[in-house]
Each structure stands twice: as structure tokens, then as C-alpha cells.
Specification:
alpha/beta; 6 strands; 18% strand; six-stranded mixed sheet; globular; Transposase Inhibitor Protein From Tn5, Chain A, domain 1; 36% helix
Length: 266
Amino acid sequence: MQSSHAAAKVSARFDDPNLVGYGGLEPVVRLAERCGLPALASEHVRLPVSKDGTGAFPAAKLMSLVGGMVAGADSIDDMDRLRHGALPRLFAGVRAPSTLGSFLRSFTHGHVKQLHAVARRFLPELAAHTGLLSGAESVAHVDIDDTIRRTYGYAKQGAGYGYSKVKGLNALLGIVSTPLSAPVIAATRLRKGPTNSARGAAAFVAETIRTSRASGATGLLLVRADSAFYGADVIGACRALDARFSVTVRMNASIKAAIAGIDEAA
């Protein structure tokens, strides 16, 4: 068996008005609504409403973006897949890709922090309705790290060269997991590309621990991080919130001297 047409001459479209291409979205959206995501977005995300209505109805636009990403969208144009087939019969309030693009472009750093507030409150609700963090009442792990996301173009706000020598933005991530569950993003922070890994890390670690506790991690909680986060403020945040820690020690002069002072037979 072989195809009767060259690949370049074949295209596929999903436009049958009676079929649903992403049926799995329906229970996902219902779960988000049951956990209060639209209400949280309406309460905490406040954008100025321009004449074209860019900042209006943030909950509907955020739910459209979430639904599109769940359906595999990785660009603004891909958000149009939410309007194919019979999906408009399943979901109301789906916004056009151009509207969603204008909405996202209107965000400032303060509005991103508003989204953080939504995520911080949503995760405990999601954990309460699902088995998201099974076994967290016994033991859970919090992993702290940052990453550089490459960006392109000369006008990208906040982009710069950091420790990786790659031009982009710095993202700080707090991940919570258990021996019985997959890792879950508990906290994020988007920063300028040249930002030092440890900048603001203590407050971020505290935020991640509190969110993890609120999401059911009531037992032993172990914070893990590499040497970029080796510092008294990070350790202090862990101890203040009754969390254990495992942080790689930075090989500075005092540590090297201490190691050299250990007898070979010790």
C-alpha cells in the first residue's frame, strides 16, 4: 500500500460542522470551572479596557487560551482550532486568535503577577478535586531551578544574555512531586534574561512551599536545589516553613579549605 499523492499536494482540514475534533476538552473545561478558574481570573486579572475592548472579559479569554494549549496550540494562529467543527456547540465565549493576541500583548509585568496569583490559588483547588499529588500527606519534594527560554528579534522586552550565553528570558520554576505522582508546577516567575539565578530565590522558595502545603503536601517536604541557590536566605526560608532541604554546596574558598582539612583516613 502506498499513498497516491505527493505529500506536498495533500492537505487536511477539519471543518465538518457536526464533528468534534477535541472531545477531550469538554471534561477539562468542566474541571477548570468546578475548581473556580474563571472566577479566579475575573477576580484577580484586571486590565484597562481600551476602545477596542482588549482588556474586557479576561476570564473568557484566559479560558480560551488554556483550552487552545490543552488542544495542542503553540501559537496565536493555532487558537483558531477551537472554532472548528462542532466545538462552538460545546463551548461559548471562544475568542478569535486576533483578539487573544491583542489581549496577551497588552500584558505588563504587573498583569503577569496577577496571573501568578490566579495559579497560586487554583492549584490547591485542583488538588482537592483530583489525585494530583497522591501521597503528599506523607512525603513530597520541591525542586527549584531556573531556565533560559530563547527569544528572537531586537525588540523583545526583557531579553538578554545570561549564564547560558543564550539570548532569552529567565524563568524561575518551583516543581512539587511525590513518589506516587508526576511533577506539578507550583510556582513560576518570569524574569529578565541576565537575571542571576539566586535573585529573589528565598521569597520564591517560600511561595512554592506555601502553595505545596495548601495543595496537600502536609507531610515531610524536602526542597532540592543546585549550587546556584546555595545561600543563607534560601535555607532560612526552608527552615522558617518547616521544610527540609538538600542544596548543592558551592565550591568556594572556605569549602575547599574545609575539605582539604579532612584527614585521608577520616
